[in-house]
């Protein structure tokens, strides 16, 4: 006859089987849950954010490179100007600037001022123009186009316009008196 197994033996066998099945379950990989719409949307948003961050970083790198290149160009230009200034002889030297006292540089300043005043609205230019010395007003007005000068004169106060007109007329009279046999060309604008 067969003896019945004891309860302790049955419990030990159940525990051994349970341990083995647990070990097999841990060792085998669990299948991943299928992606949900929310999970997919989150992954897409993260990918889009990463792309925009990459593009932004690339733009910053390019901007930084451009800034460095500009800085180098400005430094080299400054060095070239300083070297040119070191090479140019003093203004008092004969034939250094073509005229005594560096007049070409001074003339360039008046040319720049004439361009600036021509670009401004006549009413605003007239307000500033009247504050200048008469000598500066004359030199700048002579370098401006006739139309621009006329518009600025029209916007000036009557006294300021009259003073400038008289100064310009004296300058023209002085030029013709200095060169009596030569017919001087009329003043034309820039």
Structure commentary:
The chain is mainly alpha-helical and 190 residues long. The chain has helices spanning 7-27, 37-87, 103-119, 122-129, 134-143, 146-155, 158-178. Helix 5 crosses helix 7 (158-178). Mean pLDDT is 81; it is low at 91-102.
Write the layout of secondary structure elements.
Blueprint: H1 7-27, H2 37-87, H3 103-119, H4 122-129, H5 134-143, H6 146-155, H7 158-178
Helix pairs in contact: 3-5, 4-6, 5-7
Helix-strand topology string: HHHHHHH
What composes the largest sheet?
none
Mean pLDDT rating: 81
Approximate strand percentage: under 5%
Q: Which term fits the overall shape?
A: rod-shaped
Total number of beta strands? 0
Poorly predicted residue ranges:
91-102
What keyword list fits this structure?
about 190 residues, mainly alpha, rod-shaped
């Amino acid at each position: 006859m067969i003896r019945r197994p004891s309860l302790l033996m049955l419990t030990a066998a159940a525990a051994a089987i349970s341990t083995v099945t647990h070990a097999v379950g841990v060792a085998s990989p669990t299948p991943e849950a299928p992606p949900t719409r929310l999970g997919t949307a989150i992954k897409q948003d993260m990918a889009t954010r990463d792309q925009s961050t990459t593009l932004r970083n690339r733009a910053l790198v390019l901007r930084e490179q451009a800034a460095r290149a500009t800085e180098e160009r400005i430094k080299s230009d400054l060095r070239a100007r300083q070297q040119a200034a070191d090479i140019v002889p003093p203004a008092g030297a004969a034939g250094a600037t073509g005229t005594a006292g560096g007049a070409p540089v001074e003339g360039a300043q008046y040319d720049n001022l004439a361009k600036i005043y021509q670009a401004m609205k006549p009413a605003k230019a007239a307000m500033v123009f009247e504050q200048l010395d008469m000598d500066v007003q004359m030199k700048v007005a002579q370098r401006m186009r006739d139309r621009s000068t006329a518009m600025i004169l029209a916007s000036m106060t009557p006294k300021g316009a009259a003073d400038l007109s008289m100064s310009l007329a004296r300058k023209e009279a002085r030029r013709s008196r200095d060169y009596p046999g030569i017919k001087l060309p009329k003043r034309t604008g820039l």
